[in-house]
Design brief:
With 261 residues, the protein is α/β, with parallel strands linked by helices. The protein has one domain (3-254): NAD(P)-binding Rossmann-like Domain (Rossmann fold, 3-Layer(aba) Sandwich). Helix content is 44%, strand content 18%. It is built from eight helices and seven strands; from the N terminus they run βαβαβαβαβαβαααβ. It has helices at 18-28, 40-52, 67-79, 111-137, 166-187, 205-210, 214-222, 230-242, and strands spanning 3-10, 32-37, 56-61, 88-96, 148-153, 191-198, 251-254. A seven-stranded parallel sheet has the order 3-2-1-4-5-6-7, with helices on both faces. α1 (18-28) packs across α8, α3 runs parallel beside α4 (111-137) and α4 (111-137) packs parallel to α5. It starts with a strand and ends in a 7-residue tail after the last strand. The chain binds NADP nicotinamide-adenine-dinucleotide phosphate and 2-acetamido-2-deoxy-beta-D-glucopyranose (NAG) (3 copies). Residues 111-112, 115 line the site of one 2-acetamido-2-deoxy-beta-D-glucopyranose. It comes from Meripilus lineatus.
């Protein structure tokens, strides 16, 4: 029976950022896509859009990024009926893209902020990684020497703390450490684990609104020299997923051409 690979992406927001771009790019490359996020309506719409453009995507909403919700998620994805009984569906790639960004001065950071960052950036990512690894372990090794690829979206805060990012950087540093440990442990089982440092602003509806003036918004939207496009990041994720086992990237560092930080 032919195998149709599934790509699981967690953190799709309202489908204007990296998560949704990755879903579209992987769908175009022949993956079925399992979309995961907290807002059911946005998810259903994103899945329907991919279906309309010739791909196959299904929505798997979670109530929150908790250990138990993420653990349950993989069972739901495996049980999903993709409607093609002559094709075997196998999860071959997974992206942990959800990220809880907290930007406050250190003295403003509350216990709740810290919990939020640790919960969303680390605890839930542990659950996601565990389920992805358990799933990949059951896969046969493919022609490029892999059972599966697990990718994490990082940020400047993954490697550098700064003013306003104490809580966020603690979470993203933890995520990076997790990905490095996983790469060491599961490379030996032909599971490719990669971490991407997104070192700059990504153009999304939400990040656009964070720019304080109309001029700054114009610049961020139209000047490709100063920010990252979700689609370009997604192309790099597909590239990681296509690497063969003799030269795997653990860490990728992506930044716009006119980086100045
Ligand atoms: N935007 C930037 O400038 C930028 C720069 C560098 C790195 N990054 C990282 O890139 C990744 C993708 O971000 P994106 O901006 O392109 O947006 P995105 O892919 O549309 O979505 C990011 C996801 O993070 C989740 N999220 C956001 N705030 C959260 C919170 N407080 N608690 C729990 N989950 C939260 C959202 O989950 P739901 O879908 O459930 O709402 C959202 O789907 C994130 O990991 C982010 O840290 C972003
Ligand atoms: C898209 O199509 C797939 C089957 O190819 C189906 O499983 C999924 O539920 C559909 N999603 C939406 C939102 O229509
Ligand atoms: C933060 O998490 C700890 C440990 O789970 C819990 O005891 C505490 O009540 C939480 N604090 C807040 C403000 O949510
Ligand atoms: C996405 O969210 C942002 C801010 O939360 C909002 O301004 C924007 O209109 C939303 N976009 C879509 C397509 O829903």
């Amino acid at each position: 029976m032919p195998i149709r690979p599934i790509f699981v992406v967690a953190g799709v927001g309202n489908a204007t950022g990296t998560g949704a771009a990755a879903a579209r790019v992987f769908a175009n490359a022949g993956f079925r896509v399992a979309l995961v996020a907290r807002n059911k309506d946005h998810l259903e719409k994103a899945a329907a859009d991919i279906n309309k453009s010739g791909g196959e995507a299904a929505a798997f909403p979670v109530s929150a990024y908790t250990y138990s919700a993420i653990t349950q998620l993989f069972d739901d994805i495996k049980k999903h009926d993709w409607g093609k009984p002559n094709e075997k569906a196998e999860i071959r790639a997974a992206l942990w893209n959800a990220g809880s960004g907290i930007f406050k001065t250190f003295l403003e950071v509350t216990e709740e902020d810290i919990n939020d960052s640790v919960q969303n950036n680390i605890v839930a990512a542990f659950a996601f990684s565990r389920q992805a690894v358990l799933t990949f372990k059951d896969n046969e090794i493919d022609e490029k020497g892999r059972r599966g690829t697990l990718i994490f979206t990082g940020a400047t805060a993954s490697i550098r703390g700064n003013v306003y990012t104490s809580a966020f950087a603690a979470g993203k540093h933890g995520l990076r450490a997790l990905s490095q440990s996983l790469a060491k442990e599961f490379g030996k089982q032909n599971i490719h684990v990669a971490h991407a440092i997104i070192d700059g602003g990504i153009l999304t509806d939400r990040s656009l609104q964070r720019r304080s003036t109309p001029e700054a918004q114009e610049e961020f939207k139209n000047n490709l020299d100063v920010r990252l496009s979700p689609e370009s990041i997604a192309e790099s994720y597909l590239y990681l997923t296509n690497q063969e086992r003799s030269s795997w990237t653990w860490e990728l560092d992506l930044r716009p051409a006119h980086e100045k930080w």
